[in-house]
Amino acid sequence: MPVILEPGDVDIWMNPEATPDQVRATLKPRASQLETFPISPRVNSPRNDSPDLLMPVQPESLF
Asked: Positive or negative, the Cα torsion across 11, 14, 17, 21?
């Protein structure tokens, strides 16, 4: 899972002298900031390479 940081937390995250507790404090649930939608299962093959792969599809058209 990628880390999603608030803009004010970037300096702490990037600071090599930050303590583990300081870094942990930047890690907060942010699932509500993400948008999810179904995409084509064609993304599972490296042979498919086109921008339309990331376009939403209707769930019934997945298979």
From this structure: positive
Domain ranges of the chain: 7-61
**Residue found under tokens 């995409």:** 39
Q: How confident is the model at residue 63 (pLDDT cuts 50, 70, 90)?
A: low
Kindly report, residue by residue over 3-60, the tens digit of the pLDDT: 899 999 999 999 999 999 999 999 998 888 888 889 989 999 999 999 999 899 987 7
Asked if 38 and 56 touch (Cβ cutoff 8 Å), the reply is yes
* Residue with tokens 């019934």, as numbered in its chain: 60
DSSP the chain: ------GGGHHHHH-TT--HHHHHHT----GGG-------GGGG-TT---GGGGS---GGG--
